[in-house]
């Protein structure tokens, strides 16, 4: 049977008209609902809007946790995917309103139908967002906190709901959506120009704006003349990010080692659960009341001197991170280690296990390339391991590592990588790819080293790991981040605070006073109403 192109266009056009009709009906219902909502605005709640996997949006999860800790009813509107952080799941003031993913048949349409596919997908997203923000949230939230990007259609939907329900929009500017689109379509694309105009129009007049950097705030205020309150809220790690003790490292790798794909013979010999490639349990005497005659052996894990250096990078495996830089740097490190260790065995370069966390479209391509290099070039000193961790294990792995690497280059050159913030929270020094505003986070030579290309990264690795595990330069960078093993209440360094401290100082004054006061009034009225209803009802 021959394919009739005209029939395909007719079907696609019919679908668009059908979705448009549903959208118009929904807007009509919103307007009718809005007249009622303006009279009963609920000042004790906030909606957090993420057009993405909430488990992969740490900053928005931290926002939700902060609101809920202040007894603000918090609705999270997002896609269901990765598991959120455990502390968020246990909070009574948090409710997840998951929006449905677009149907799979949309992604299976031929690429030549992209001009039809995009509107259908956007219409489906609009429907899901409006359904959650209007019909599933019983009372209008006082604020709608929107993550940007994604920009389309989230900013427009938030703008519409705010006008119908009487809420206020706060945009959390993580990056610029149109610059990410330009990575795929090119800066001169007409679609990129339209996306930029869309972002400017719907992002300009929010009630308030949060920025991850001073550079982003200055740029948007100057170029787009943003209206509303403006607050720079730098990313900071939550308090449970910390440098792990040998006992914590041992417990982690007793669980992780069976999941590693690296051949066991590459590691120093080990036997679970008493030893791992990185730790070993040793016996030491335990004294009672100062009486040395009463001894009992005590077991405690220690770090092994012959362990590999444990490096980590976190990536979304997308084009905005040039992963080829890391591959080339590891190739150069492998060659340098062979030459150096043959000439200077007294101060060798160690084996390196490069752990890469995250998921994304380019993962399979790059991991296959790395494995091919290991086999064809017979690498002896470097191995790579891709990992996808539970939320509670990610900070533990960071706290167990020796060095972090950031390949983030920023499509706008105005945002900062959250991965470095997390690393600093675990007192983990970094090697970071340089870009415009990196200096707001990384001070070269103080809390990390900055590189421009693969050669620079390879040089830093050799410098920092020489003589490992007794590396003076690596120890100096770590010392600048704080004490060797930290407590959850510590500060990372002068001027640094935990997420909670930073949020309470900078963002809470804008949203919590009015929320908490009116929330208490609303709660008291609600309880009194329930008591009156109970008292007036007949006894059973």
UniProtKB/TrEMBL annotation:
Documented EC number(s): 2.4.1.142
Membrane topology: Single-pass membrane protein
Keywords tagged on the record: Endoplasmic reticulum, Glycosyltransferase, Membrane, Transferase, Transmembrane, Transmembrane helix
InterPro entries: ALG1-like, Glyco_trans_4-like_N
TM regions (residue ranges): 12-31, 113-135
Primary subcellular site in the record, as a coarse category: endoplasmic reticulum
Gene Ontology annotations for the cellular component aspect, listed alphabetically: endoplasmic reticulum membrane
Entry-linked SUPFAM superfamilies: UDP-Glycosyltransferase/glycogen phosphorylase
Boundaries of every Glycosyltransferase subfamily 4-like N-terminal domain copy: 60-232
Localization per Swiss-Prot or TrEMBL: Endoplasmic reticulum membrane
Pathway note: Protein modification; protein glycosylation
GO-annotated molecular function: chitobiosyldiphosphodolichol beta-mannosyltransferase activity
Function field: Participates in the formation of the lipid-linked precursor oligosaccharide for N-glycosylation. Involved in assembling the dolichol-pyrophosphate-GlcNAc(2)-Man(5) intermediate on the cytoplasmic surface of the ER.
UniProt protein name: Chitobiosyldiphosphodolichol beta-mannosyltransferase
The organism of origin for this protein: Serendipita indica (strain DSM 11827)
Lineage: Eukaryota, Fungi, Dikarya, Basidiomycota, Agaricomycotina
């Amino acid at each position: 049977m021959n394919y009739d192109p005209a029939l395909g266009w007719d079907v696609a056009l019919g679908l668009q008209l059908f979705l448009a009709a549903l959208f118009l009906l929904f807007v009509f219902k919103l307007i009718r609902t809005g007249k009622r909502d303006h009279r009963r605005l609920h000042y004790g709640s906030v909606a957090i809007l993420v057009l993405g996997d909430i488990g992969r949006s740490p900053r928005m999860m931290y926002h939700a946790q902060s609101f809920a800790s202040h007894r603000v009813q918090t609705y999270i509107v997002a896609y269901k995917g990765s598991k959120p952080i455990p502390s968020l799941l246990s909070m009574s003031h948090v409710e997840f309103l998951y929006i449905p993913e677009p149907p799979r048949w949309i992604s299976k349409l031929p690429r030549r139908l992209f001009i039809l596919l995009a509107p259908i997908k956007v219409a489906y997203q609009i429907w899901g967002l409006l359904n959650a923000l209007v019909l599933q949230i019983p009372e209008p939230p006082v604020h709608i906190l929107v993550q940007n990007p994604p920009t389309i259609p989230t900013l427009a939907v938030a703008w519409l709901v705010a006008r119908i329900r009487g809420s206020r929009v706060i945009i959390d500017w993580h990056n610029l959506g149109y610059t990410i689109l330009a990575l795929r379509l090119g800066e001169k694309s007409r679609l990129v120009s339209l996306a930029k105009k869309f972002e400017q129009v719907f992002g300009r007049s929010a009630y308030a704006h949060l920025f991850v950097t001073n550079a982003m705030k200055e740029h948007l205020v100057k170029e787009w003349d943003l209206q509303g309150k403006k607050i720079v809220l730098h990313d900071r790690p939550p308090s449970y990010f910390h440098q792990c003790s040998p006992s914590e490292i041992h417990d982690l790798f007793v669980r992780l080692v069976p999941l590693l794909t690296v051949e066991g013979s590459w590691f120093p010999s080990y036997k679970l659960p008493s030893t791992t490639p990185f730790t070993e349990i040793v016996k030491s005497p335990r004294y009672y009341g100062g009486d040395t005659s009463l001894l009992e052996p005590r077991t405690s894990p220690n770090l092994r001197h012959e362990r590999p250096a444990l490096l980590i990078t976190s990536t979304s495996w997308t084009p905005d991170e040039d992963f080829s830089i890391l591959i080339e740097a590891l190739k150069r490190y492998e060659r340098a280690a062979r030459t150096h260790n043959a000439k200077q065995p007294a101060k060798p370069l160690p084996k390196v296990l490069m752990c890469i966390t995250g998921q994304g479209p380019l993962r399979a391509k790059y991991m296959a390339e790395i494995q091919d290099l290991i086999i064809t070039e017979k690498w002896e000193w470097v191995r790579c391991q891709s990992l996808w961790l539970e939320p509670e294990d990610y900070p533990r792995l960071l706290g167990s590592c020796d060095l972090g690497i950031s390949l983030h280059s920023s499509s706008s050159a105005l945002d900062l990588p959250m991965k470095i913030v997390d690393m600093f929270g675990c007192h983990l020094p970094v090697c970071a790819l340089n870009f415009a505003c990196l200096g707001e986070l990384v001070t070269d030579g103080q809390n990390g080293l900055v590189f421009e290309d693969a050669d620079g990264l390879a040089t830093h690795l050799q410098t920092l790991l020489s003589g490992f595990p007794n590396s003076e330069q690596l120890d100096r960078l770590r010392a600048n981040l704080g004490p060797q093993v930290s407590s959850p209440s510590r500060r990372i360094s002068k001027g640094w605070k935990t997420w909670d401290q930073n949020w309470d100082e900078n963002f809470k004054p804008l949203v919590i006073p009015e929320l908490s006061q009116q929330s208490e009034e609303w709660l008291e009225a609600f309880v009194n109403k329930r008591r009156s209803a109970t008292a007036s009802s007949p006894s059973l």
